[in-house]
């Protein structure tokens, strides 16, 4: 049987320490008709060396280099490099289960669905933990994604296998440095795709200190910017609901920022921090005395 090809598009920038784990999760897929498109988005680390080792190991890995243009630019570049029927987006710090593609083999072979979705878990410090939201089948609609995103749920991009012809010709919006996934999901679901949902964990979302989602100010700035792009997607009878949802999204983001500030404040008030702070102040005073004494004797 001729199975349809899946292209896995992996943008890479300054996260080479996670790349082997990501690519190994592709290499171990039991479903074998895939190609993996690795895009080095101007990354100055060991991305190129690691990726080229995988191309030598298996010819299904393809490696490309481009000038740094951001996540959206790199994903769009990958879309241009493949003719595969299906697309799996995967950030280089995340990974997927080796059974994922095989688990959807029947749906892939019939081709009667436009998006194949499965659940996810968090991964940090070599430990798995529950997802940051609970995905449910009723979330996978245009209205839910437009109005409830970042309030009740959001869907990590690697939870889906997308039918390529259903992806907007423009791909990802390159003007957005965050929240580009949300706009992509809205545009995809605007065409009312046929959805397969399997409540099985096949996707792993790595959480680490350099994760973009930890930059709350970046999230706030791009949440504001994306509203400008969403006007054309909002019908007149949805405007009031959208404005209400927008307000609620800001409140959720502000609360998360406030929680982080309170957590930081508590850490400053801890006995350990006060001890370190006291020692540091004493060190600064000693250094300052040494500097002033050296000047006075000069």
Automatic annotation (TrEMBL):
Glycosyltransferase 2-like domain sequence ranges = 8-164
User: Do you know which Pfam families this protein is assigned to?
Assistant: Glycos_transf_2
Please report the organism this UniProt entry assigns to the protein.
Sphingobacterium tabacisoli
Q: Which SUPFAM superfamilies match?
A: Nucleotide-diphospho-sugar transferases
Question: What is the name of the protein in this document?
Answer: Glycosyltransferase family 2 protein
């Amino acid at each position: 049987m001729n199975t349809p090809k899946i292209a896995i598009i992996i943008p890479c920038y300054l996260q080479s320490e996670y790349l082997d784990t990501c690519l190994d999760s592709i290499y171990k897929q039991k479903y074998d008709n895939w190609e993996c498109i690795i895009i080095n988005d101007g990354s100055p680390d060991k991305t190129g060396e690691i990726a080229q080792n995988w191309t030598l190991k298996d010819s299904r890995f393809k490696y490309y280099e481009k000038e740094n243009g951001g996540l959206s630019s790199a994903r769009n570049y990958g879309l241009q490099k493949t003719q595969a029927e299906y697309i799996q987006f995967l950030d280089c710090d995340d990974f997927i289960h080796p059974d994922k593609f095989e688990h959807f083999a029947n749906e892939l072979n019939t081709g009667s669905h436009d998006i194949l979705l499965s659940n996810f878990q968090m991964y940090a410090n070599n430990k798995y933990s529950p997802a940051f939201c609970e995905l449910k089948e009723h979330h996978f609609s245009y209205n839910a994604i437009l109005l409830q995103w970042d309030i009740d749920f959001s869907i990590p991009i690697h939870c889906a296998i997308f039918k390529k012809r259903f992806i907007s010709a423009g791909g990802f919006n390159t003007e957005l440095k965050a929240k580009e996934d949300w706009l992509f999901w809205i545009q995809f679901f605007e065409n009312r795709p046929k959805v397969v949902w399997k409540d099985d964990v096949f996707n792993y979302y790595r959480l680490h200190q350099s994760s973009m989602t930890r930059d709350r100010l970046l999230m706030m700035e791009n949440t504001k910017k994306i509203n400008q792009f969403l006007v054309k997607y909002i019908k007149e009878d949805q405007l009031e609901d959208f404005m209400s949802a927008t307000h609620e999204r800001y409140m959720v983001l502000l609360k998360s920022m406030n929680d982080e500030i309170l957590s930081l404040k508590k850490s400053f008030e801890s006995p350990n921090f006060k001890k370190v702070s006291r020692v540091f102040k004493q060190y600064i005073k000693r250094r300052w005395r040494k500097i002033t004494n050296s000047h006075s004797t000069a």
